[in-house]
Write a structure and sequence with these properties.
- Pfam families: Luciferase.
- This is DUF5519 family protein.
- The chain has 127 residues and is of the alpha+beta class.
- Helices cover 33% and strands 20% of the residues.
- The chain contains three helices and six strands.
- The chain has a six-stranded antiparallel sheet, with helices on one face.
- Strand 5 and strand 6 form a beta hairpin.
- The longest helix is centred in the last third of the chain and has 19 residues.
- The radius of gyration is 13 Å and the shape is globular.
- The two termini are 23 Å apart.
């Protein structure tokens, strides 16, 4: 089982999340009642809809993590899963994303946060 599959299985049992197809057309998504929260694009790459406010609050810590890729102006972060610690980080960030979305109403008729980072981030293996 890949790290992404294990993470998805863990998150699918969270009561605030339901699974379906990702709106970007690539992979599976988990969503809350407010918005899509997580896109599983590959066996290692996951996009997380963290929100601009949460990214601002955690920016320095996110920037220091070798597992996180930030795209300027995006409400999403990309998490590259290389080890169990990266899965633990994803779980913590999903919890933060759920909290951030509870405090942010979704615009009528569309998913808040725009497009995920799929095809906008290149993740190089750790060396």
């Amino acid at each position: 089982m890949t790290l992404a599959q294990r993470a998805m299985e863990q998150l699918e049992v969270w009561p605030d999340l339901s699974s379906g197809s990702a709106s970007c057309g690539a992979g599976r998504a988990l969503r809350s009642v407010h918005s899509e929260i997580v896109h599983f694009h590959s066996d290692r790459d996951v996009d997380l809809h963290l929100t601009a406010g949460a990214i601002g609050r955690f920016h320095d810590d996110l920037q220091e993590s070798t597992a996180i890729r930030l795209v300027p102006g995006s409400d999403w972060v990309t998490v590259h899963l290389d080890c169990d610690t990266d899965v633990d980080l994803l779980m913590s960030l999903v919890s933060a994303a759920l909290k951030a979305h509870q405090n942010r109403p979704s615009p009528a008729g569309r998913t808040a946060g725009g497009e995920c980072n799929f095809r906008r981030v290149t993740v190089l293996p750790r060396g």
